[in-house]
């Protein structure tokens, strides 16, 4: 639990910034002069707005605004007014309207604020009967066809509440960003445990129905650092598995339809995402002709995991023979046909529209973690029936469980010459960097994309495995194709900056073994920086 004195100190620091000019405040908080100020601090008592506020990336003219209005008793529907202004003092109101909170949506209010100016930092708040929510800062996408000087994104995932504090969110809140891309595992559906590794009490029950999924979001949003990140930046979130259940696939939705419906309903209630079509969350955001971001759903349409003789899911092992050789089956899909077509057509469209960077918000790793390569000419001479890409893999919950579809993607990207394609990945609670090859069993295969795996906000990595983590980091560099960077021991996030000529990705991390990750001194530091000149696959690495 954060101490009141500490909150007061931080609150005063941020509150003091509000009265300063933009340049003065920016220099104090370490941003470049002229960057937009942080939102004012939350009041100590949020009253009925206890979950804070949030906004979501939507279009060049609209943002999604979110809050939860939850007085002690929410009897009937409540009209909540919202305002969007061009300044944090709300002297210039740009748009306003009302939304409705009711017990039916757990008090969550989500509105699409439209007719906004393109590419602008804006400020928003909600009010009910004279009660005001905290103030949030958001930003619209730039006008189509425009060329922004840069786009700066934080990339985050996996924020298990009980195992860690959120210094990463504290650092993200202080950055000057266009958006936060969240790659899933916003909540963990497990029951709270009394594990010795837990750092804060999580008395929650396993989420299985609407009240218990909603309770998870409320518990996670009780963290002030997470709320501060939401207040500071628009989010572009997708879900991974733990928003519903561990390692799920499309059969899970058929086997547990009511639980899936509850999980998805709670996600849509609590995330600043405007519904597109029922439970579809894959979608696209464009920053002019600088960046095209495809946000994926690699969960709800994926073919089921291969199972063993007792029906158990097989998530590691050799694909040389049945049953795991089925992971290489033609037609086996992690995206589903419709989403695959949408993704690949989107790459083509972005390329023909001369959009420089094409990034993919991708839950699970596309680079194979193949511990043993069995697709070798000598082995094939002995075993002509070996499937293409045969090997011993560390996980079939990622794209390696769907190798035919990965080949479809890499071959089409290579054939069409899609340039500057990068995968931003979560899920695995570690930091990686690798080159995605057209065919990783071909000795001189061209590189078709780069992958940046951006760690976890708090969820456990291999740091709990002691010395093994370091040995594993070394080992994965020797795989074929090897990983250029691997860090299994730290928590944090990725920071992506795109300009017309260059992209960079930094990993900002704290050591997971830091004694008090809740202390303000636990500041994620830049551990590594990758520089990627546009039009090349030459990504250079600078440590520190
Ligand atoms: Fe996770």
Structural class by helix and strand composition: alpha+beta
Taking the alpha carbons of the first and last residues, their distance comes to: 31 Å
Overall average residue pLDDT: 91
| Poorly predicted ranges | 1-34
Counted up, domains total 1
Cα Rg: 23 Å
- Number of DSSP E strands: 25
How would you describe the oligomerization state of the chains in this entry? Answer: single chain
Shape: globular
Task: Give the CATH architecture.
Answer: 4-Layer Sandwich
* Fraction in beta strands: 25-35%
CATH superfamily: Alkaline phosphatase D (PhoD)
User: How many helix segments?
Assistant: 11
Q: Class, according to the CATH hierarchy?
A: Alpha Beta
Q: What percent of the residues sit in helical stretches (DSSP H or I)?
A: 10-25%
List the ions, cofactors and other small molecules found in this model: fe (ii) ion
Main sheet overview: 10 strands, mixed
CATH-defined topology:
Purple Acid Phosphatase, chain A, domain 2
Q: Walk across the major sheet and give the strand order.
A: 5-2-1-11-10-9-22-23-24-25
Features:
single chain, 544 residues, alpha+beta, Purple Acid Phosphatase, chain A, domain 2, seven-stranded mixed beta sheet, 25 strands, disordered N terminus, binds fe (ii) ion
Description:
The chain has 544 residues and is an alpha+beta fold. It has a single domain (151-543), classed as 4-Layer Sandwich (Purple Acid Phosphatase, chain A, domain 2). 21% of the residues lie in helices and 26% in strands. It contains 11 helices and 25 strands. The protein has helices at residues 4-18, 22-28, 167-174, 210-220, 224-232, 250-255, 257-270, 337-352, 377-382, 403-416, 468-477, and strands spanning 53-57, 63-68, 78-85, 93-101, 108-113, 121-128, 131-132, 136-139, 151-156, 179-182, 234-237, 283-287, 291-295, 317-318, 357-362, 370-373, 391-393, 421-425, 431-437, 447-454, 485-487, 490-499, 502-511, 525-533, 540-543. The strands form 4 sheets. A 10-stranded mixed beta sheet has the order 5-2-1-11-10-9-22-23-24-25. The protein has a 7-stranded mixed beta sheet with strand order 12-13-15-18-20-19-21. Strands 3, 4, 6, 7 and 8 form a 5-stranded antiparallel beta sheet that branches. α3 (167-174) packs parallel to α5 (224-232), α4 (210-220) packs parallel to α7 and α8 (337-352) packs parallel to α10 (403-416). The protein is globular and about 80 Å long. 49% of the residues are buried. Bound molecules: fe (ii) ion. Fe (ii) ion binds next to loops.
